[in-house]
Amino acid sequence: MSATDTASHSSLMNGVYRHQRHIYDLTRKYYLLGRDRLIDGLDVPAGGTVLELGCGTGRNIVLAARRYRDAKFFGLDISNEMLETAKISVARESIEGRVALAQGDATAFDTKVLFGETGFDRIFISYSLSMIPGWEKAVGAALAGLKPGGSLHIVDFGQQEQLPQWFRAALHAWLAKFHVEPRASLLQVLESECEKRAASLSFETLYRGYSWLGVAKLAE
């Protein structure tokens, strides 16, 4: 996104979540399915570094930090409103020493400037690509931010291909109210980006197509 587009999207997300952020985790746990499975599969190496793009309220980082206690975590989000909640969540867990948060655009970011890091062992994106204009660039930027042997983990809405049509239509209409659009071409984009970098890819359909889970791994 251009600087103007980034500012516009940041303003939009701040408006959407200025009040919702206070109840976001309570309400989203019922339909953001597959997030905990993603965290379980991170398999962070000892002393590893983990970046979440679109970290939102910090819910995933907090859970991952509990599980991988010797890793360092970094969170990037375009919404300052969401980051305020994330900071509170991190402070509540007393993990400020292992977690750094910053405002930024997931499609174009400089982690050296933001965090003093040039690469990460793991990067994950949980239900954020469906909210990011130019989301394909976020996939490419994430893969470019990995260390050799690192992996990118993505979970997001699928196309509900094995669920009733009425359910799919109702879900998409509901999500549109929050500027969320499931990415029908996620697998194709991942395949293309992995081919560019000679990365391996695993891709799973969860809950009858409700969610998709992809893991792209770079060679050592």
Detail the topology: elements first, then pairings:
Elements: H1 3-20, H2 24-28, H3 35-40, E1 49-53, H4 59-67, E2 72-77, H5 80-92, E3 99-103, H6 111-115, E4 120-126, H7 135-144, E5 146-157, H8 165-176, H9 186-197, E6 200-206, E7 211-217
Parallel strand pairs: 1-2, 1-4, 2-3, 4-5
Antiparallel strand pairs: 5-7, 6-7
Helix pairs in contact: 7-9
GO biological process, one term: methylation
Domain Methyltransferase: 47-173
GO molecular function: methyltransferase activity
Describe this structure in words.
This protein has 220 residues and is α/β, with parallel strands linked by helices. It has a single domain, classed as Rossmann fold (3-Layer(aba) Sandwich). Helix content is 41%, strand content 22%. It has 9 helices and 7 strands. It has helices at 3-20, 24-28, 35-40, 59-67, 80-92, 111-115, 135-144, 165-176, 186-197; strands at residues 49-53, 72-77, 99-103, 120-126, 146-157, 200-206, 211-217. It has a 7-stranded mixed sheet with strand order 3-2-1-4-5-7-6, sandwiched between helices. Helix 7 runs parallel beside helix 9 (186-197). The protein starts with a helix and ends with a strand. InterPro entries: Methyltranfer_dom (IPR025714), SAM-dependent_MTases_sf (IPR029063). It holds the Pfam family Methyltransf_31. GO terms for molecular function: methyltransferase activity. This is Class I SAM-dependent methyltransferase. Residues 47-173 form the Methyltransferase domain.
Summarize the structure.
The protein is α/β, with parallel strands linked by helices.
